[in-house]
Amino acid sequence: MAKTVEDIVKQAKAEITEIDVAKAKELLDVAVTFVDVRESPEWAKGTITGALQVPRGLIEWKVSSEAALADRSAPVVVYCQGGGRSALAAKVMQDMGFEQVMSLKGGYGAWSGDN
Question: Which region holds residue 37: left if phi is over 0, alpha if psi is between -120 and 50, else beta?
């Protein structure tokens, strides 16, 4: 039987690390890179200060050329609007050798209180 997008996201979430907003806010004070995988219209509504903007559809190409992500052992927090796309992006980054990639549970909606 074919998988649904929900199945694929659920599988990715089972294989990655998800963190809540409180933990993500703690990480703002340490050397961590935030990666926003939302599209431009979503960015216009707000973003976490200092986050890299890398649309989910380009993640595989952009993370390899982004200077802030050169050290694949450094911690990275990936987020989207609700947590699905960031889980998929975190899984891809993990597969690409990122050792401390985390997905923000609930995404920017949880961060900004919109969820």
Answer: alpha
